[in-house]
Structure formats: C-alpha cells, structure tokens
Design brief:
The protein is built from 13 helices and 13 strands. The protein is α/β, with parallel strands linked by helices. The strands form three sheets. A nine-stranded mixed β-sheet has the order 4-3-2-1-5-8-9-10-12, sandwiched between helices. Strands 6-7 form a two-stranded antiparallel ribbon. A two-stranded antiparallel ribbon has the order 11-13. Helix 8 packs antiparallel against helix 11, helix 9 packs antiparallel against helix 10 and helix 10 runs antiparallel to helix 11.
Length: about 425
C-alpha cells in the first residue's frame, strides 16, 4: 500500500459506500466488482463501506485483485454515520494522504434524490406535504410544533420503498413500514443534504489544493442543474443519472478495467468512459439515463436558465402562452414518481420553442440549449420511457414549490425560482 511521501500514481479512485440500509448486499457486490481489477502500479482503488444489520461496522479498504475482501481491510472504524460530513471528509483526507495521485475521482454511493433535502422521517415531503418544512429536524417555516410522530402517507412510503436503491444518505424506508402503522421513532437516521455536501466538498478542495477531478454519483436522480450549481466551486466534472438507477448501479469492473488499461487518460476521457460503460451495461429498454457534466460551464448555464425563467414569467401574463406552457409541462420528459417534479432541461426547451409562440421565449431557449451543449460532455438513455433525456434535469413542480428549494444556491439567483412559484400559483386561478 502506498504511504505518504510515495510517488504519485496516475489516479486514485475513492468510493464512499453508505450501505447501512437496504443496500448492504449491493455494496458487497460492487466491492467484488472493483476487486476483479484491483489497484495497480498506476491506480489506487480505495473504499469505505458502512454496513448494516448484524455487521454494523465500517471498514476502509485498499482493494486488490486476487485477495479476499477481509485481507484488503486497512482499518476498522466501528459504527459510523455516513450522513455526517466529517465522516466523508475524513475518508477522503485519509485516501489522498495515503494514496497520493495526479488525479482523483470520488464516487458517492447510496440512495439519491437530486436537489431534494426533505426528511421523509420527519414527515417533510417535497411533492407538496403540509408544513412544517424540516431539514435535519430543524423547522424552517411555520407549521405544527413537531412532526416527529406524524404519519407519512402510505403512497409516499410505498413509492420510496419501491425505488429500493439509491435518496442521498436516507436510511432504508423499510424501517418505517409495519403491518399496523407508519411512524417516526429512534430508528430514524441522518442523511447528507446538499448544503452539507457543498460544505464538505469545499473542505476536500482545500485538502487537495484544487478541485476534485471527477465526482461520481452512484445514486438516483443527481444529474440536475441545482446539484451541479451547488458544488461547482469544488468539483471539475460530475457523472450521474437524471433517472433512478437500477439495483446494479455502476459497472465498476468494466470502468476500472478500461482505466487500468489506459491510466494516462484525462478526466474528461474518464468521465466520457463512465457514461459509455454505464449505458452499455443495461438492456436497450431498461429505462436508464447517464451523463457527464463540465461544472466550469454550469454558471453560464444557470444564467441562461434564469433568463428563461424571466421570459416564461412574462409569458404567463399572456393567456395563450400560459396555456402552451401548461401543455408543455404535461408532455416534457420527466422522471419516476414521486420525482416527476424533475424534468429534462433540453427537452423542455425543445417543446417550449415549438409550443410557445413568443420570440423572447425562443431566444431564451436557444441560449439555454447553447449553454447545455458546452456543459454536457456526454449523455445517453436506454428505453422509450426516458428517450428524451439530454443529460441534465431541473425542478419544475406541477402543483406547489417546496420551501426547501429556496435554500439552494441556484434558487437564490431568483428568476427560475420566481417562475415556478408564479406558474404553480397560476394553476389555481380561474381560467
């Protein structure tokens, strides 16, 4: 194993597996995939795996080919909270100290929910649940004094449970389900929200002295404008999915085999390779999406999207244009319920250009599409249900806007957040 002061390798791949939930067996399977390649003279593959059930232990691994997994354990950490930013920070600090490299890829492996930071265990649900709005148990808007014992709608829990794999660091929803009732109790655990993610990635950037080359999300729904904008200052490139991920997640064996064969590849080449190998690992009609994004282009994309928000807000005052926007929202590529509040940005612009007969809206859409072309390195989809996916999604609610949305960096820029607020309010007006 490399030690501090050793010559730098080409790449260190760091995989942070938050498996203290219903993903434990999937995590073990993915580690086995990584070990089919293992660390080489040019690449280090390290992992931290928090396990569930009777195991209840977190291990750090330097993964090698041809060994038993327990032989790859570097240190045992006991029980950890993967939703604590300090746990992720300490893993990365250890990895870059013990395994210095020219390039770093960090993969966050778990459930994923895009920008949405609502706490299912507190009765907070982004698709329109009643207040209070809570993050980590802290009340952010007026409402009931406490939701700690409030039941969650069965449809909500069933939908989340059906997803099975991958909202970012939420523990398994199955702990909430019983034959008698659903309630919140001491089994509720922590998760890493987007504000914390921004903070911990900023700390990691300071440790590295530069941006993380690639941040991979082996998790659902993370390829969003809002997520990318949140972490733009700490990460160069991202890889992730607009749609939910199937249980198999990333094909670590084929990705790492290709990297080991050509360890000199640049970050853009590796990001491109991850997308191609991910898509190739699924059947033609499996309903998967995947993309790689250049975050140096995210600020111009955010500016373009806010310009579109301004144009659409003006269009809402025109009854014909407003009706066309409603029709577009009904047709646009969206993702699995309950996350059908997320829609593909490229497809949205294409439909708006055809459906809304206003020059200012067309100009704004053209600007967004040009910005998307610079931001998206590669994108693809497998299956008719997700065929109109262009690589980046955005929050476009159908009924109400989550109060949590205003806490994101992207939302604070204003114009898109103002548009969706005006749009959802307009739906309640008499036509």
């Amino acid at each position: 194993m490399a030690r501090t002061g050793a010559a730098k390798k080409r790449w260190t791949v760091m995989v942070y597996l938050a498996g203290d939930n219903n993903l434990d067996s999937a995590g073990a399977g993915d580690l086995a995939e990584m070990k089919t390649v293992g660390s080489t003279r040019d690449i280090s593959i390290v992992a931290q795996f928090d396990r569930s059930g009777s195991k209840r232990v977190t291990n750090r691994y330097f993964l090698q080919k041809g060994t038993r997994l327990d032989e790859d354990v570097v240190t045992g950490l006991g029980e950890t909270n993967t939703g604590d930013p300090a746990v992720l920070r300490d893993f990365v600090k250890w990895a870059v100290t013990e395994h210095p490299a020219q390039r770093y890829m960090l993969v966050i492996w778990n459930h994923g929910a895009g920008w949405d930071d609502s706490n299912l265990y507190e009765g907070d649900y982004f698709s329109g649940a009643a207040p209070p709005v809570l993050r980590k148990g802290k009340q952010l808007s007026p409402g009931r004094a406490s939701a700690s014992t409030a039941p969650v709608a069965m449809s909500t829990v069933r939908a989340a449970f059906r997803r099975g794999r991958r909202s970012l660091f939420h523990p398994t929803v199955s702990t909430l389900m019983s034959s008698r009732a659903i309630a919140f109790d001491d089994q509720a655990k922590d998760f890493l929200d987007n504000i914390e993610l921004k903070q911990v990635l900023a700390e990691i950037r300071r440790t590295l002295g530069r941006k993380i080359d690639i941040l991979g999300f082996d998790a659902c729904l993370m390829s969003m404008v809002e997520v990318a904008y949140q972490i733009r200052d700490a990460v160069a490139l991202t890889c992730g999915s607009e749609e939910e991920e199937p249980g198999d997640g990333w094909p670590y064996d084929t990705i790492l085999k290709a990297l080991a064969a050509r360890p000199s590849m640049a970050p853009r080449d590796l990001a491109d390779l991850v997308v191609k190998n991910y898509l190739a690992s699924y059947k033609p009609n499996e309903g998967v999406t995947f993309s790689a994004t250049d975050l140096s282009a995210i600020a111009p994309l955010a500016t373009a999207v806010n310009g579109l928000g301004s144009a659409l807000t003006r269009a809402l005052a025109d009854p014909a244009a407003r009706g066309a926007i409603v029709a577009v929202r009904a047709q646009v590529q969206e993702y699995s319920s309950p996350y059908d509040q997320y829609c593909d940005l490229a497809d949205l612009c294409a439909l708006l250009i055809r459906g809304v007969k206003r020059p200012d809206v067309k100009r704004a859409c053209d600007t967004v599409r040009a910005a998307l072309a610079k931001a998206v390195i590669r994108a693809g989809a497998r299956g008719k249900r997700v065929a109109h996916s262009g690589g980046v999604s955005i929050y476009f609610p159908k009924k109400t806007v989550s109060s949590l949305y205003a806490t994101l960096d992207f939302s604070k820029r204003g114009a898109w957040a103002s548009f969706i607020a005006n749009y959802t309010r307009s739906l309640g007006r008499r036509r």
